[in-house]
Amino acid sequence: MNALMPDFEMHNLSKRAPNEWEGFAEIDRAIAENRLTEYRIKKAWADPINRAVTIFVALLLSAFVAYVVINDFIL
After folding, report:
1. Same domain, 1 and 29
2. How far is CA 24 from CA 29, 41, 45, 66, in A?
3. What is the reported pTM?
């Protein structure tokens, strides 16, 4: 066993989940690999309603920033 990389971490990544927990296998691997945020973003972007809300909020924030810049710095 190495002090920098314990042996148990390598064994946990190679185990497969049982069939009844197959739906949680991807989430479990995401947590183990510390990529849960990427998983959530991909799942949210795959949903059409979440995609529309994300685009709407981004446009709303962009419009607010543009308004502040125009109102404070240009006018």
Report:
1. yes
2. 9, 17, 19, 42
3. 0.51
